[in-house]
Amino acid sequence: MWKLVLGFVAFAVLALWMLSQGGDIDMSGEKHSVDAGPAASAASH
Amino acid sequence: MATASAVGKPMTPEEKKVIFASSLGTVFEWYDFYLYGTLAVIIGNQFFSALDPASRTIFSLLAFAAGFIVRPFGALVFGRLGDMIGRKYTFLVTILIMGLSTFIVGLLPSYASIGIAAPVILIGLRMLQGLALGGEYGGAATYVAEHAPHGKRGAFTSWIQTTATLGLFLSLLVILGTRTLIGEAAFADWGWRVPFLLSVVLLGVSVWIRLSMNESPAFKKMKEEGKTSKAPLTESFGKWKNLKIVILALVGLTAGQAVVWYTGQFYALFFLTGALKVDAATANIMIALSLIIGTPFFIVFGTLSDKIGRKPIIMAGCLIAALTYFPLFNALTEAANPDLAAAQAKNKVVVTADPAECSFQFNPTGTAKFTSSCDIAKQVLSAGSVSYDNVEGTGPAKISIGDKVIESYAATGLPADEVKKKDAAFKGAVSAALKEAGYPAKADPAKMNKPLIVAILTLLVIYVTMVYGPIAAMLVEMFPTRIRYTSMSLPYHIGNGWFGGLLPATGLAIVAQTGNMYNGLWYPIIIALMTFVVGMLFVKETKDVDIYAKD
After folding, report:
1. Contacts of A43 in chain B (CB under 8 A)
2. Is the pLDDT assigned to residue B463 strictly greater than 90?
3. Least confident of B72-76, B351-355, B482-486
4. DSSP state of B65
5. Mutate to test the interface with A, among B172, B180, B382, B502 (most CBs of A within 10 A)
6. Predicted complex ipTM
7. Which domains does chain B have, with CATH numbers?
8. Pick from B395, B405, B389: which is nearest to B351 by CA?
């Protein structure tokens, strides 16, 4: 079990480090519009 | 077969392998599925941007349908297959379909190379992904549950419950990694294909592992005794005795679970960036952090459900979420954008419009156009996170901010460049008035209480883990082996695909309609409460069910 915990923590640290390197990440993962997602249009300007 | 209680015994290597194999494959399925959604903008540029707006709208709807609406059909097709020929082979098929479709997307020439065939094939592939996903989850949950010893089903299946979140992270990491290695420009050009192509490697690993697995003992026994169902669809949904349970599984379990999931995992993000104007990078990191902290709780609650029951945890999750969403999201506003909270409290904004021209702005794919003066006024205000009251009037819609009145315009029938001009003028006037009234254009990072935001987001994720952790075991336990894969897959994908998938669009439409940025929460609250009431009254606890008793 502890191996799993360690593995998960390592994965988490790597994930957060990579995500914080910037670039445009999007945790929503489920945009389906071919223009831009509803959030983008509502959030624009 | 494992019917004797095995509480207290450590997991055997065979059991670990079953969990690992099923979970890994399901993580890869989610990875494949999320890639498309995450890279939607680039895919849009490569395949859809040269199309005329009407075609774009159609393809957009199809892509949305493929992602959500199609899943229950996948559940029917593969559920039926799984109950007729076995879990092992069916969920080999689902992963092959998913993996190959994903891989082919990576190879697909763009619109520039092969014209209209490109988007058509792409949508076809996306539909296949939706179908495969519809078949995967039921298979993985059933397969693991049928290997789990009695008394540990919740613990065993809870690992499957982590896979969607892990799959999402994996897709993001691969995308980011590729982008960092080859650079932004190359990525937008051809590099975006790499994460899709990589899928074939993941597919190879999954297939190799799954081929070496044994069929579930329950199914094997049923097959040997010749008791498998010849018509799982009819038996599942054509007989009221079982159909009743399927409907209960949807209304009294998965509908509530799905809206809690979508609120915690996705709506919170929309709210941070859209309503609270937090910059995307910060918002996404905070969401990622909350998901990471929350993910272990899938295992915690799944395991706990073996001891105290599935129903208490799932029902508590639905009820507590429904009761605390308003206070939590209000707290989120105070923590992330206190200036906005202050401005909303201080200023009264009123939209005076002819009700006949105000539409319910339901827009799941973002391509519907709302062009009346009322709709435009409300859109601009909602985008600014402004709370407003609605007053009936006549003529073109007017926005009153304090004592300033700004008239909206109708875009219907106007040529594009005139619309642009009027739009700019209108938005300019409204923004200026809002600024004067103290509405911030962005959330000020200096005033953000980040630890508190992450704490609130994490709590939202904990609700997700409460409703989702035990649900695989519960769904499995509600149905007999011969129709289990079919019966449990459908309510799961209708709940998550339809009730859940439509949450963001429904929420936004309600916000625009009513003028209050929190009102989108009513949708998940009402659905979660419905599930709580129906679940408490009609759904029976299942943790002690002998899942082979009705075989």
Report:
1. 273-274, 277, 383
2. yes
3. B351-355
4. I
5. B172
6. 0.73
7. 13-228 (1.20.1250.20), 230-337+443-542 (1.20.1250.20), 346-436 (3.40.30)
8. B389
